[in-house]
Specification:
The protein is an alpha+beta fold. It has one domain: Translation factors (Elongation Factor Tu (Ef-tu), domain 3).
């Protein structure tokens, strides 16, 4: 019986530490896996879409695109969500977002690449 209580106690601790609530995601580093890439004919760069898994991102912020084991620093030039354009910030837990970035060409980005911020 004592072993069972110990196991249940450990499971409770592990479950508490793995809480994936929206609040916890907002305080972590930024991470978004790219679901799609669009080449909208503007001078501001390609637009990538996806769901933010961790943290938040602000317009004008420098972020890192991880692609094929290489890291490229890009800048956020536009943020949008469904029927909401020209946002100043987007955060984890929201619907899919569109992020227009500069500092890289359309053909260098593919589905599955990751946008991150390292602290």
């Amino acid at each position: 019986m004592r072993k069972l209580k110990t196991i249940l106690f450990i499971i409770g601790i592990l479950s508490f530490g793995c809480n994936n609530s929206k609040k916890n995601n907002e305080s972590m580093e930024f991470k978004m896996v790219i679901q799609d890439v669009f080449n909208i004919k503007t001078n501001s760069g390609p637009t990538v879409t996806g769901k933010i898994e961790k943290g938040n991102i602000t317009l004008g912020e420098k972020i890192i695109l991880v692609s094929n084991s290489s890291e490229i620093i890009v800048e956020v030039t536009k943020l949008e969500k469904f029927e909401q354009e020209n946002l100043q910030q987007v955060k984890a837990g929201t619907d899919d977002v569109g992020i227009t970035i500069s500092g890289i060409s359309f053909d260098k980005i593919k589905k599955g690449d990751i946008l991150i911020i390292k602290h």
